[in-house]
Each structure stands twice: as C-alpha cells, then as structure tokens.
Design brief:
The complex is a heterodimer.
Chain A: E1 4-7, E2 10-13, E3 19-25, E4 31-37, E5 43-51, E6 54-57, E7 64-66, E8 76-78, E9 87-94, E10 102-103, E11 107-111
Parallel strand pairs in A: 2-11
Antiparallel strand pairs in A: 1-3, 3-8, 4-5, 4-9, 5-6, 7-8, 9-10, 9-11
Chain B: E1 4-6, E2 11-14, E3 19-25, E4 32-38, E5 45-50, E6 55-57, E7 60-65, E8 70-75, E9 84-91, E10 99-101, E11 105-110
Parallel strand pairs in B: 2-11
Antiparallel strand pairs in B: 1-3, 3-8, 4-5, 4-9, 6-7, 7-8, 9-10, 9-11
The chains are: A mainly beta, B mainly beta.
C-alpha cells in the first residue's frame, strides 16, 4: 500500500534520553515535514525538507534534529535538550509546493 | 495576530443541520488553502482543497474570499459521523513548502 508510515505508534522514554521517531513514505513525494501537536493546540512545524540532503528549521526546532539521507525517510530525533517532549508527533509529505500534504498516523511520545 | 485563526467551538448541532465555519489568514500572498478533518487522537486527513472559484464535494462546500482573507466550509445535512475537528490550512507564497495550520474548530453533531 502507498502511504506514510510512522513508527512506533506509542513510545515511552525516560527523561534525559534521546529518542528517534521513524517516518517512511513510498509516495515518491519530494517534501517531508514533522509537526508536533499538544492537547487543545494546533500543529506546530518542527522541521521540513524539500529535497534529499536538505532540511530547514520550522517554528519550534530547538531540541530536535532530523536527517534526510533518502527521499523515502525523514527520521526525527527528540533530544534531551527538548524541555517538554511529551506530545503527539505527526509526519507528513507532499509532492511539491502548492499541493496538499498527507499525514502518517502519528507517534504519541510520553516522557516520564 | 495569528497567521491562521479559527473559532475553536465547539459547535453543537443536531443531525440534519447546516453548519458553517470560517477561517481568517493574515498573509495576503498566501497561495493555497485546504480544509482537513481530524478525529480525536488521529492524524489530520484532507477534506478538500479550496479553489478561488469555490468548490463542492457532496455535502461540503468550500469558499475563498481573497479580499477579506478568509475561507469557509459549509456542511449540509450534518451526520453523526461528521463530528470531528476541522482544521484550516494555508500555504504561503508561491513555491513555499510551508503549511500553516489553524487550531481547529470542533464540531459535535447530536442525535
């Protein structure tokens, strides 16, 4: 099936540990995105990538890192520098500018 | 001022009712507009793109008013299954890949 796959669906980590969230797409989309959603809030952009080996910071990039070594993959690392990492993380992709984005099912991260 | 603003609701309407949501955006150079639907604890899913001439998809109608910088979504003959949060999404100037999301309007359709 074509689509965007995020894994795992639920993730628990201890405070101070880095954790990497996976996002893979087989839609041949150029652009990929990471958003964070907190309860009662809208989606906030963490990082995005328009092409392989290139990515830009979004509005809340501090404490996060990404890589885009392959077109299909855009993993997000939540580092210990992120002050409040517990949230719902959503990965998305789009084929090109001015077209709609498609989302993965999300990863719910809880840091204890 | 937020880049994209929506009334958070909730809008509680009976089955069969018609309901409308508005969304305002601040960047007059914005090029693309969308409505997404998000169910509780799920990912957003594209409901419809919004075109300058307005567009309709079954019970759903979207309109764009560039002069006043708002988009609207009209839902006719509401169903229980329409209960969800509706997100207004704006894409910036031509060629940009950045989407800007509103905080969403919550709809509850009551039996």
């Amino acid at each position: 099936d074509g689509g965007i796959t995020q894994s795992p669906k639920y993730l628990f980590r201890k405070e101070g540990q880095n954790v990497t969230l996976s996002c893979e797409q087989n839609l041949n989309h150029d652009a990929m995105y990471w958003y964070r959603q907190d309860p009662g809030q809208g989606l906030r952009l963490i990082y995005y990538s328009q092409i392989v080996n290139d990515f830009q910071k979004g509005d809340i990039a501090e404490g996060y890192s990404v890589s885009r070594e392959k077109k299909e993959s855009f993993p997000l690392t939540v580092t210990s520098a992120q002050k409040n990492p517990t949230a719902f993380y959503l990965c998305a992709s789009s084929p090109k500018a001015n077209t709609e984005a498609f989302f993965g099912q999300g990863t719910r991260l809880t840091v204890v | 001022r937020k880049e994209v603003e929506q009334d958070p609701g909730p809008f509680n309407v009976p089955e069969g009712a018609t309901v409308a949501f508005n969304c305002t955006y601040s960047n007059s150079a914005s090029q693309s507009f969308f409505w997404y639907r998000q169910d509780c604890r799920k990912e957003p899913k594209l409901l419809m793109s919004v075109y300058s001439s307005g567009n309709e998809d079954g019970r759903f109608t979207a309109q764009l008013n560039r002069a006043s910088q708002y988009i609207s979504l009209l839902i006719r003959d509401s169903k229980l299954s329409d209960s969800a949060t509706y997100l207004c999404v704006v894409k910036g100037t031509s060629g940009t890949y950045k989407y800007i999301f509103g905080t969403g309007t919550r709809l509850k359709v009551l039996a």
